[in-house]
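Appendix B. Chain record.
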Amino acid sequence: MASPAAPTVSVIHLLGHLLVRLVQAWPSSLPMPAVLTTLDLPTLRHPTRWHTADERQQRLQTVVSTAQQVVAAVRPILAPLPAHERASVDVLLRAIGKVIADETATDADGRIRERLADDKVTYRCQSAVDLQATLRKHEGSPAVFGVNAVISTTTTRIRACVALTGSTPDSETPTAVVRQLQPAEVPLPPYLIMDQAGGRGPTRAQVDVRSEGQTQMVALIPPSGGSDPRRFTIARCGISVATHKPIARAIGRSSFRPITPICVRARRSTTARSASSC
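Structure tokens predicted for this chain:
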């Protein structure tokens, strides 16, 4: 699901935009400190274009140093405020700290440099407007900046709906469904039916552990590691044909889709249906 925001073009732009939003979110009950009033907001919003690697390095050094000074100065000022009054500012301060840690490193001589691509973490903040959005890429499709929307349904009802950051693998979505259902204290589905993204052993094990054995994954086994079609059997999924004919038929087909456009379908037991109030 695409975000209405767009990813920034560089860490220099991102930190500048976060500082601008920090000024805008400053609590009205507190006087704005000098470290914020002296910021050059137009330049932070629209950094001038650099033409050489040295110019880019200088801009990076300046914006990171400025952001570090701002964070160090405003945290003690915000500390006496109740949590709800400083919540929006705290989110931005954490985002600034995460961007600096994820995107940059400081050499022994104090020189700040941007990390190499292979040295950066997977879940990186890329927009000052949508802090949770990341790039999502499906093979054969262009990358989408946004969230991985997960919907768990029966044939008639939506049981769970979770928005995960875009780069979250589909194999992690079943456990997200279980995590959302557990605090609501509703019966967990005995089966979660999904495409082969949920068919690997680690995903099955995670669902089993998280649900304490109450929920079982039903999914095609991915072909990686071998293409022997005899591996794709109902017995491999541990489903009784006599007891669960609809599920067995789904597994027996070469492929199947959940009824929702996204990710997961849950099958409720008789107990779950009787316990449901809707």
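Further analysis of this model is presented in Appendix C.
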